[in-house]
Design a protein that fits this description.
The chain is of the alpha/beta class. Bound molecules: glutamine (GLN). Glutamine binds next to loops.
C-alpha cells in the first residue's frame, strides 16, 4: 500500500481526508506536509495494517484522539484514553480567565476539580510555574492519564484522588477551576459522544448537580478573596450565577467562548 492508496481507502470508507492524513502522519511520525510530498512511498506491512485498523475505527465513529491516543490543548500534546474526556477548545476560556485571577508571580494554591487528562491543570501549571496546582479526579484511570501528562509537561503538578471536594479535605485555595460534567441526562447530543466516559459528560438529570455540589462546597475551601471559575453549558449561566450568589459569592460574571456562547462563570469568595 502506498500513501496515496491509503488515502483512497480512507475515501472509500467515508473517512475525511484530513483525519486520514492525521492518522498517517501520527503513525509514521511525519508531518502532513511530508505526506503530501511522499504520495508514492510504500507503507511497511505493520504501518499499513495499523492504518487500516485506525481507518476502520474512525469510520465507525471513534474520535481520532482515542485512535492516536493524543489530543492537543493550548499547545500541549496530551495523552488521552477512553477513561478521559477529549479536551475541547472551548475549555481554553476557563484557563485564560483563571490565569487573570491571581498574580503570575504569587505562590498561591490552585485546584482543578475533575481534571480528566489534566488539560486545565497542566495548562495553568505550565503558564504559572510559581502557582502550586493540585488536580483531582474521582477516577483512578483518569488520574493515571493525568499523571502521565504531568510527568511530561509539568512534574510539579500535584494529583489527588476523590470526588469533587472529597479529594481536598481541610484545604483552602486562592483559585479553584472546574470543567465538571454538565450535559443534561436526556440531551440528544450525548448520543454522538458515546465513545467518551458518560460520567465525565453528564451528572444525569438537568446537568446542574455537579456544578451545584462544587459551588456549595467552595466556601469551606477558598481563602478570603479566592475565586471559583466554572465551565458550564451554554444555557446554564444564569443558574450557575444564581447558585454562586446563594452561596455568598460576589462579583459573579459570565464569559462567552469563541462561538459566542456563555461558557464560564466565576465568583469571588470574600470570606
Ligand atoms: N463541552 C462538552 C460537550 O458538550 C461537555 C463537557 C462537559 O460536560 N464538561 O461536548
Amino acid at each position: 500500500m502506498r500513501i496515496r492508496d491509503a488515502l483512497a481507502l480512507a475515501q472509500a470508507l467515508g473517512v475525511a481526508r484530513l483525519d486520514a492524513q492525521l492518522l498517517l502522519a501520527h503513525r509514521l511520525g511525519r508531518s502532513r506536509a511530508w505526506l503530501l510530498a511522499h504520495d508514492d512511498d510504500a507503507l511497511g506491512e505493520t504501518d499499513a495494517a495499523a492504518l487500516r485498523d485506525g481507518l476502520r475505527r474512525r469510520a465507525a465513529g471513534e474520535p481520532l484522539a482515542y485512535i492516536t491516543c493524543v489530543a492537543e490543548f493550548r499547545g500541549l500534546a496530551l495523552a488521552v484514553s477512553p477513561a478521559v474526556l477529549i479536551p475541547r477548545p472551548e475549555t481554553e476560556l476557563l484557563v485564560e480567565w483563571a490565569l487573570e485571577l491571581q498574580p503570575a508571580e504569587a505562590e498561591v494554591d490552585v485546584a482543578d476539580l475533575g481534571t480528566g487528562s489534566g488539560a486545565v491543570a497542566l495548562a495553568l501549571q505550565q503558564a504559572r510555574p510559581r502557582w502550586r496546582v493540585t488536580a483531582t479526579d474521582r477516577s483512578p484511570q483518569a488520574l493515571a492519564v493525568a499523571r502521565e501528562n504531568a510527568a511530561r509537561h509539568a512534574p510539579s503538578l500535584a494529583l489527588a484522588q476523590g470526588d469533587w471536594w472529597g479529594a481536598l479535605v481541610g484545604r483552602r485555595f486562592a483559585l479553584v477551576v472546574s470543567n465538571p460534567p454538565y450535559v443534561a441526562g436526556d440531551d440528544p447530543h450525548l448520543a454522538a459522544l458515546g465513545h467518551e466516559p458518560r460520567a465525565a459528560l453528564t451528572p444525569e438529570g438537568d446537568g446542574l448537580a455537579a456544578l451545584a455540589r462544587i459551588v456549595a462546597g467552595a466556601p469551606a475551601h477558598l481563602e478570603a478573596g479566592g475565586w471559583l471559575v466554572l465551565e458550564h453549558g451554554h444555557d446554564q449561566a444564569e443558574a450557575v450565577r444564581a447558585c454562586l450568589v446563594r452561596s455568598g459569592f460576589d462579583a459573579t460574571s459570565t464569559r462567552s467562548d469563541l462561538a459566542g456562547l456563555p461558557r464560564c462563570s466565576a465568583g469571588c469568595w470574600r470570606g
